[in-house]
Design goal:
Number of domains: 1
Structural class: alpha/beta
Number of helices: 5
Low-confidence stretches: 1-11, 15-22
CATH class: Alpha Beta
Strand order of the largest sheet: 1-2-3-6
Mean pLDDT: 83
Order of helices and strands: EHEHEEHEHEH
Helix content: 25-40%
Strand content: 5-15%
Oligomer: single chain
Shape: globular
Largest sheet: 4 strands, parallel
CATH architecture: 3-Layer(aba) Sandwich
Length: 198
């Protein structure tokens, strides 16, 4: 999101560096292993996310897009189709860090001029997980590369949002999450069904 600082130059949005702002920021770099330990997750997923949202506010970013995960709501019973308005209910410490990111986003959107979209990303894979030993749940949560590109573009361009959570899955025949919220909130209309490859 921000250029890397060097010893000889300050960030353009640091105090005294003029009035300059970023139009949009995205926070996707973090530990993505759902089995990672607290020690592995804390620096990037907790502290790093906090630092990014603070920088977004400081730099007057218009819209911050945060990578959450369906793991933030993985504590709901199996077979329940997840919705963007479901309260976080993680089943792992990794999911808890994603719920933290969503809470930070809601805080930033309610206390600053920066609006926030948190994307609850499902099972992203370059190829359909069908036939790879993936579970039905993995296939139901699949987000294809094409649909992922659309999911990342739409929240940047969407208007009239202060804070929103959107599900990031392809419109799979049997899907883990409802995709209508992404269409209604950020205008994202994914179209690749992972089950066509089963």
């Amino acid at each position: 999101m921000l250029p890397a600082p060097s010893a000889s130059r300050s960030l353009p949005c640091q105090p005294g560096a003029g009035t300059w702002s970023w139009p949009t920021g995205r926070r996707f770099a973090a530990v993505s292993d759902p089995e990672a330990s607290w020690e592995a997750l804390r620096p990037a997923n907790v502290i790093g996310t906090y630092q990014v949202v603070q920088a977004a506010v400081h730099c007057r970013v218009r819209r911050l897009v945060l990578a959450s995960s369906l793991r933030a709501v993985s504590g709901y019973p199996e077979g329940v189709q997840l919705r963007a308005d479901d309260a976080p209910r993680p089943a792992s410490i990794y999911g808890t860090t994603k719920a933290w990111a969503e809470a930070l986003g809601a805080w930033v959107a309610s206390t600053s001029a920066t609006s926030v979209v948190a994307l609850r990303i499902g099972h992203f894979a370059l190829q359909s997980p069908a036939g790879t030993g993936a579970t039905a749940r993995d296939i139901a949560a699949r987000l294809s590369p094409r649909d992922c590109g659309e999911l990342l573009r739409c929240p940047v361009e969407a208007e009239g949002i202060r804070f929103a959570v959107a599900s990031g899955v392809s419109p799979n025949r049997y899907r883990a999450a409802d995709v209508s919220d992404a269409a209604n909130t950020i205008g994202c209309r994914p179209n690749e069904d992972a089950w066509t490859c089963v």
